[in-house]
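Can't paste images in this forum, so I'm doing it all in text. The chain is below; anyone willing to post the predicted structure tokens underneath?
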Amino acid sequence: MDSDAEAALRVIAYFDALTLRSATPEMIVRGTAALAETAAGLRTEDGVEHRFAPDGRRLSSSSDGRRRREQRAGSTTVWLEREDAPAAMDDLILERFALAVRAVGSDRRERTDTVDTALVETALSHREPLEERSLALRRLGLSASAQACVVAIAPAGSVESAGEVGSGILGMLRRSHSARGAMLGGMSAAIVPLAATDPGAAREDFLTSLRSSLAAAPAPVRVGVGGAIGAFDAHRSWAQARLALRFSSPNRLDAAVIDAEQLGALSALSTVDAAVWQRDPRVCALRDFSTTENGRIDLAVLEMYLAHGSLRLAGSALHMHHSSVASRLARVEERLGLDLTNPQDVFDARLGLIALTLLETAGDQAEAPAAAAGDPV
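Text version of the structure:
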């Protein structure tokens, strides 16, 4: 058998193996890029696009000036990109790429943006046997050795809106980051795969993208993001995500999305019994503020002032005159018995706002499924 024929058979066998293993479209694109030693991509009829480099890194939708050779796979388009002339096996690789994508049904739109809840629960629980977790990850289209982080999502409003809000965010994460997620109790969980070459940097990029996306979300949400970890140990990232969720608040500056890795010693505050905060007169006063529209504006002013340290900057961020900011802060200081020119009182105010958030999110842990609620951080 000549070398060209042998190489062709290997290409065919490679894509046949991907198909037999029920690889996801993203896995097929990543595998094609590695085989062809060049960037490869896929775009569905509804505009969802996956593009990977030969080393497995997810790429943006830009082709960086490379020339594409495309082929249709049903209603899906697949392609290879090269700066120079096509390689000898490109035609065959592209043909088998399209056949593999069509075989796994990537051109069929998913009816839902969530997946089997039982699979997600199993993947996120340390109590299940190793074999069960490995099988759940494979069925979710994830490798047990892959790097991932887990995201916990909760509605900012009523629990009744959890399903609609969670489904929308999960759908966004599926389309933008190939996440696998489901509703778990009163919150949603998403397992987000990360590039194996530099999972830390990939996670930072994901956080930036997530914050930007949620800024334009139609409904306010609270999000906690766990650390990057091997997918087989996703229960640890899930526990971190639920902990971070307790510190999240859409009413506090830049606190709608909390990064568990940035909490540090603050995470210990989550272990304080709620009764301790409820007996604190300043926390009670802050809670009273949050019961009225005018009081919530006062809290926003306090938060913005603590963030910027300036009446004018706080006023600019809130689109208020600095004299109005000063007037509201004076009322807050009088009610709380604080002097915000005193560093100790500034610390007490920050602590009070965090304590208020922890009181308001005390139910987050209880809403997690029993199978994962006891997982260690």
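The mean pLDDT is 83. The beta strands are 40-43, 49-52, 67-73, 76-82, 147-155, 180-184, 187-194, 221-225, 229-230, 257-259.
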